[in-house]
Amino acid sequence: MGRLGIFVIFAIFSVGVAQEFRLPRNILPTSYKLEIISVLDEIPQFPRFSAPGKVWIRFDCVEATDVIKLHVLDLDINEGGIYVHNSVGVPQSIRGFGSQPEYNFFLVNLTTALVAGESYELYIPYTAPISPTRLDGIYLDSYVDPATSETKYVSTTLFAANNARRAFPCLDEPDLKAVFEISLGHHAKYHALSNAHLLDTNPLPEIATWILDTFAPTPRMSPYLVCMIVSDLTYSEAPQPYPDAAIHRVYAPYYFIDRGGGVYSANLSSTVNAAFESYYNISYPMSKLDNVALPQFYYTAMENWGLMTFADRALLYFEGETSAVQKYSLSLTVSHEVSHNFFGNIVTCKWWTWIWLNEGWATFASHQGLQMTYPELRPWDMFIPQIYQTAMAMDESLNTHPVASEPLTPDAIGGIYDDIVYEKAATLIRMMQNFVTEPILQEGVRRYLQKWQYGVTEQDDLFLEIQGALDDSGQGSTLLPPSSTIKGIMDTWTLQAGYPLVTVWRVSPTQIQLSQRQHVRNEIPSGDEVWWVPVNLNVLTGPSPGRRKVWLANDGVNLTLNVGEDELFFVNPESIGYFRVMYGSEMLHQWARLLEMDHTKLTPTMRAKLLDDSFQLAFSGHIPIDAALDLTKYLNQEVDFLVWKSVEKSLTKLGNLLRSGSDKTGQLFNDYVSAKISYSRSALQTQRAMMDAISVDYLDQELTRLGPYFTLGDESSPSVKSTVQEIDSILKPGQEMVNLEQVQEKVRKIGQNEATRGTTWDLLTERILSVKENPGATHALMSLLEQFCPFGNSDQDLVQVNQFITSTRRMSFTRKHQSILTSCDDTIKKNIHAKAKLGPLVKSWLIKRR
């Protein structure tokens, strides 16, 4: 799933805690027969925008019980029509119904207990809403036909993580897999889509000109993967990569399809899916894969099996209009969702504790998919700033949480999708692949997918199969430390929060020492966390240049290595290990001198790692800010987008801290960075002919985007009025796609301008409060607010944030959105502190440079 990107507070997570909101396992579903009518037009039989439904749930009783407990939320249940009978049709007497609304439980109380070992069927008639305000369950979407100005309606669904219960009564937990037989009724002017292919269409007897589409049974799957869409969308179809391959289509409003907007993604979906089938040696079991572009969508995308849904901007590609960076983002999103066919759909996490087995693997595999099919997009280079560095930035707070974390409340389930289970988990998988080697990991994952096909797993199930592949290879003793296992190593990374800071220093001319401790931004580590740390070293000079691999053990003991007096070595050169590196002051001076003399002596990945780590350590007070700034002197020669992308956050953060105030430090810093960008542009023009087109496009767009941040004054900022108009367009989507990323970019540019920051904050927060009942609009606006917060660096900014936090608490905003504001408050406080501490030091460094 493409997610919100919202940080979730650790207090709502733990591992191994008994939970009252879990269903008992006395009955296990085997299949659902589901019939739903989507009422998008005025008819006398049913209210408009309602979904009358019937569900037949077949289940096995594994433990005698006189209560059938299942999930129901916001459904109108016709209790008089409910019945239960056994496998031969004998009715089971019902003595009444009950509920536990705090857990969304609906209870069918029986006169006599069901018999263990017997099979039963439960029938429930009900009506669900097609919500015009929510963006989960069954909800109403729409677009405006540009030819007629008519509003066209779409009934669609979003059930992750636990919202299938809003569409039909069910046992709505990921391990309770079943086969789904779905029929959708609708007016004949629409068509229906569901997970499986269409079997047949028949008239709907009770309503003239209406039809009932019946779909093939699905494989066994979790309820959150069910999807049902009724619309008049049309499609582009990709050629089949091999005979009998699944049909891949992209659905969207006709005017997008007519412009060719679905062609690229349909082909990409088909190509990447075939690549995964080959690489992991497992077949995609469905006959088709539809990808649907929706104007209003809560996440970026959702991996419903056989019927994936996307925000339209994340799926539609227009040749000559979509930029190279947007094309990459779109491609990665499609690859991510397609990879879920294998990680999440064929094999599913047993409970949300292990959601990283779905999302972390899909994030990792999405880069694999692009590398196998579109390597020119440089996905593994993009991984470093977008995945690796993002995870580290999120994971350096005391409020972080382990990759494997169990939600402790029903509300917490909706907040499981964050940077830890996506980016951090993907980074850990990439690290594991490096220390066990790609062939062994590939074989282990093949075994895992085959063994657990259509089943559910915990992380130990994965580690066991990788361990088996490693043992069978005969390389375990050379690849892992003595007496260690895959589980033992990886548990130190998945079951505890945070990551290590590896310190490197010379203890003598011929020896260096490496040590580890938890890295926490601006705070003291809370405990004695240690990890099994795989450390790669690249020896650049001396008599024995080359690569070395060592392990820092999880016993807290420093590691001493023998080196040559003249050896210059780089730790973690490919940004494979999930840790920051802190060099001694003399080594940092060596790196700065080397970069100025010949920066190509370090690879782009090394330069990106060195700059990112050094600035983050300077912001945390571990090294002087001068040492980090010295590393930027060479940037006028830098023409690799990876390096500029990696240093962007550090430069803009420092620029944000220095912007306000009566002295000229901000202007001095802006002039310094602007000059580096200008020189880099000149170097790009000189070297353009020697670079590949994608790298040129990436760098050109990065420098174009970055340049205005370092120009003070109103002329560099979009007008507040025009940007607010674009913000309002997000709330009322019509025939044009709203590019949320572009609006975010404008909000960031306004945020950097002290003169307009307060006004824009007021306008944004006013609109958030006005749409508090609309989750989609609230999410879009909160994502803009999240981009805005890092610019706050004054007491007045802090006052505004705290006032808004107070008002949203009164309005009962969600925990996820409150966590954004909590993070915003924390960021501004840290900015105020850092500004006071770093401002004079940066000013002194800049003056010396003049």
UniProtKB/TrEMBL annotation:
It is a lipid-anchor; GPI-anchor. Residues 1-18 form the signal peptide. It is found in: Cell membrane. Binds 1 zinc ion per subunit. Its EC number is 3.4.11.-. Residues 569-684 form the ERAP1-like C-terminal domain. One of its GO terms (biological process) is proteolysis. Keywords: Aminopeptidase, Hydrolase, Metal-binding, Metalloprotease, Protease, Signal, Zinc. GO terms for molecular function: metalloaminopeptidase activity; peptide binding; zinc ion binding. Zn(2+) binds at residues 336, 340, 359. The record marks 422 as: Transition state stabilizer. The active site is at 337 (proton acceptor). This is Aminopeptidase. It comes from Folsomia candida.
